[in-house]
Amino acid sequence: MYQYILKRILLMIPTLLGAAILVFFLMRLIPGDICELRLAGSGATFNQSSLDICRREVGIDQPVIVQFGQFLRGLVTFDFGKSMWTGRPIVEEIGLRFELSLMIAILATITATVIAIPLGTVSAIKQDTWIDYAVRAFTIAGIAMPSFWLGILIILGILFTTQWWTGIPWMPPIEYRSDWTSWDNIANNLALLIWPALATGYRYSAVAARMTRSAMLEVLREDYIRTARAKGLVERLIIRRHSLKNAMLPVVTVIGIEFAFLMGGLVVTEQVFNLNGLGKLFVESVTNHDYAMTQALVMVVVSVFVFTNFIVDVFYAWLDPRIRYR
Amino acid sequence: MRLIRSALMTAAGTAIAIGFAGLAVEAAPKQGGILKFVVPDEPPSFDGHRETTFALIHPIAPFYSLLIRVNPDQPYKSGDFQCDLCTEMPKAADGGKTFTFKLKQGVKFSDGTPLTAHDVVATFKKIISPPEDVSSARKAFYVMVDSVSAPDNNTVVFKLKYPSGAFIPALANPYNFIYSKAKLDQDIHWYEKNVMGSGPFVFESREAGAVIKGKRNPNYHHKGKPYLEGYEAIFAKKQSLRVQAIQGDRAAIEFRGFPPSSRDDLVKALGNKITVQESNWNCALLFSPNQLKKPFDDVRVRRALTLAIDRWGGSQYLSKIAIVKGVGGVAFPGHELAATDDELKQIAGYWPDINKSRAEAKRLLKEAGQENLKFTLYNRAVDQPYKFVGTWLIDQWRQIGLTVDQKAEPTGPFYATLRRKKDFDVAVNFNCQAVVNPLLDVAAHISNDRTANQYGGYQDRELDKLFDAMNKSGDVKEQRDLMRKFEKRVLDEKAHQFITLWWYRVIPHRSYVKGWHITPSHYLNQQLETVWLDK
Question: How much is the pLDDT for A325?
Fold first, then answer.
């Protein structure tokens, strides 16, 4: 097992390095630079010397190879430098957003798991009944509907419903308060976070429910399940102890990948709810041509993916010993 | 006659603002409350002297005082400047070359240190003649300034190289935050990441990407103000969310401007709980043929492009869906240096008879051998107003037999093409200024080796001479005559680049927000000291 874990850790290094090289050079293929955008983008008066000073300050006047060397050195020392847009340390900027993205990811994962596993299980057990059809309709709708669109529908739905009902339109808060010390802040943050968690959790649960259903259907046809039934075991025990546990392997994979995706992939959903998370920061850093921030964010998201995959692999190996001996 | 017209135009502009806002009779201001407003972008730094974006002005301007400013009670009036830190507007001495400002006494920065003339001098030296490693975006506005000095703690003297009508409006620029000399001496870059002023509000906190908060400055130098207890500037990039935020009362106002459809949605949803203020906007949407490329080096082709456009009709139709409305020349419509309608109608592209205009366009194209010209209109991938106006332009050109397609790119690649690649045919761009100051605002049309904002790729020394002469003239009549010659040369004779329509600013806000008056610029009147909440 230890040898397996060590091998997986060593495999993470070339993956991260490949991602670093790719993002560094891809970013520089996009025409335009942060200084032009910053000064010319407002349509107001500016001068060439302001442009030159700005380029010198953010370091884009240096040869690309020098910039690459600085980037690699920063990666190795875990110092991503400063945001080219705000001039503040990238670690600080990402740290602020990481907490929020993590919370959304956890809330959405809880929502998804609580919905998906019972639904997928019931759907498999009651295959080809109206319950199964209803669950399948619910899950297909969830997969087909982008979470940002559902988010827009949720906000508009709340606005129109409250206006129609009370005459005063209400919408969820649009600012997250990182200070959790007062009840006001907790209530505000929950009122803000619950809706994006629902919007993303729905799609997430749909994917996981369908995976649970198909895995359960497969397991329920296995010989050992027939044997358990022949032995006269209670159906509830057969489902819980023998079927569900064995059907969980692919479901765990899906949950792991979706969790990693939520950490940096809520690009549009975060805009819809004005969540100041990693996805929003991603969009802003790309549109602002903030190379340093985009590179750092890509590395954070890649690391989350690589680490989550690593955890899933280890979990797999623990659940199914055959994997680690291959 | 001209003065009567100017007065009528000002009155009309005022009427638009007041009429929509219903501000003619306002109750006595109430103290207290937190104003929440949404801002589409986050400022890159906190230093007003180096930045050019409104995203800095809206959340940061309330922390600072200015030497002079536009009148916050009548900000829609061009040329109505008043003291902020000074005691009275100075009279020009020495043949219009010396301006002496007396400062209020007892003004303090938020750290408790006194604000003196030396702080004002240090501020303007940073703006006008910054050290080599310090960026000052608008230092070109002050080419007429010879020196700025402080003979004592309460007096600031500006000496000019020549009299210039552009000086006072430039001084009232809302980015000219007065900084502490001590802080600048300690580190001239200090204000890029820190806030410390003497304005109506004191910096309370900032959460990166989310919100900037300010609280009332109890020692503010305008007695009894500000009325608000504080404010929260909430960053929200998505326009639909900003509209929803006002509808759901998560924010009371957005100070940049919404398209007409958002105004209509809010009014429909909230009725009299929404107040709408509207104004002409000191932003001109231009299009520039690339004179480095054939056939746009031919003045006949360029003239044909402008002659094809029905600006008078377009103003009516486009203003219903896009944030454009004003038909004007190079100077902000309604300003005393702007062309009257009669004067405009003498310029190619503004003729009252569009059929005659298009016939002339076709004749010119035929003469240039370009009747079947095909080209690409290069545009910024932003709906309002760029893509709306771009689509309209294509249809206008179709009517003289041209085939035009549109290529829209995000802001980064868009400016990279305009400024470096320079391989476009015709590009849309814009000129957006703060204080209405046509003498300097028209700098976007002079030779490209003298301005960073001209993308037509031309150099015209005659035009530069007219620009310099205007700026060195102290006489309004002479300035106006020169402006007409300048305008005729840019838009007609040389047909360098063209105004499509001027932008139109629409601010629908919660009706409980009082005391804020719309201006012709989203950079102006944002200190928020006069704002109060009628809740």
Answer: 58
Let me know if A235 is exposed, middle or buried by CB neighbors in 10 A (0-12, 13-18, 19+): exposed
pLDDT of B11 over the 50 cut: no
Cβ neighbors of B422 (< 8 A, separation 6 or more) are B290, B292, B455, B457
Q: Do A272 and B238 touch (CB under 8 A)?
A: yes
Cis peptide before B410 (omega within 30 of 0): no
Query: Tokens in use for A224?
Result: 């050992």
Kindly state whether A163 is in contact with chain B, defined as any CB-CB distance less than 8 angstroms: yes
B150, amino acid identity: A
To test the contact with chain B by mutation, choose from A93, A174, A185 the residue with the greatest count of B C-beta atoms within 10 A, namely A174
**Alpha helices (runs of H) in B377-530, residue ranges in sequence order:** 388-398, 411-416, 438-441, 461-472, 476-488
Is the four-CA dihedral A121, A124, A129, A134 of positive or negative sign? positive
Give yes or no for A166 touching B (CB within 8 A). no
Contacts of A291 in chain B (CB under 8 A): none
How many angstroms away from the CA of A236 is the closest CA of chain B? 48
User: Does residue B283 belong to the interface with chain A, where contact is any CB pair within 8 Å?
Assistant: yes
| Residue the block writes with tokens 């300048």 | B486
Q: Which chain A residues contact residue B414 at CB under 8 A? A: 32
The string of DSSP codes covering B496-534 is: --EEEEEEEEEEEEETTEES----SSTTSS-S-TT-EE-
Residues 6+ apart with CB under 8 A from A325: none
Who among B137, B234, B434 is closest to A47 (CB)? B137
Which positions ≥6 away from A78 have C-beta within 8 Å? none
Burial of B518 per CB tally in 10 Å (0-12, 13-18, 19+): buried
How far is A191 from A204, CA to CA, in rounded Å? 20
Residue B339, amino acid: A
Task: Tell whether the model's pLDDT for residue B124 goes beyond 90.
Answer: yes
B454 three-state secondary structure: coil
Residue B348 CB-half CA count within 13 A: 26
Residues ≥6 apart with Cβ < 8 Å to B447: B454, B458, B459, B460, B461, B463, B464
Return residues 12-41 of A near B (CB < 8 Å): 30-34, 36-41
> Which residues of chain B does A49 touch, with a Cβ-Cβ cutoff of 8 Å?
135
- Tell me the β-bridge partners of B502: B284, B326
Give A23-44 pLDDT, tens digit per residue.
899 888 888 888 888 887 776 7
**Cα radius of gyration (chain A):** 24
**pTM of model > 0.90:** no
What are the angstrom distances between the C-alpha of A198 and each of A154, A157, A203, A257?
9, 14, 9, 18
Residues whose CB is less than 8 angstroms from the CB of residue A166 and which lie 6 or more positions away in sequence, other chains included: none
Asked if A171 and B244 count as a contact pair (C-beta separation under 8 A), the reply is: yes
For A86, the closest chain B residue by CA position comes to B44
Looking at residue B178, the DSSP 8-state letter turns out to be P
User: Is the predicted pLDDT of residue A128 greater than 80, yes or no?
Assistant: yes
Say yes or no: B354 contacts chain A, CB-CB below 8 A.
Answer: no
Non-local (6+) Cβ contacts of B403 within 8 A are: B372, B373, B374, B375
Chain B residues touching residue A174 (CB < 8 angstroms): 38, 234, 236, 241, 245, 250-251
A50 pLDDT band (50/70/90 cuts)?
confident
Q: Is pLDDT above 70 for B159?
A: yes
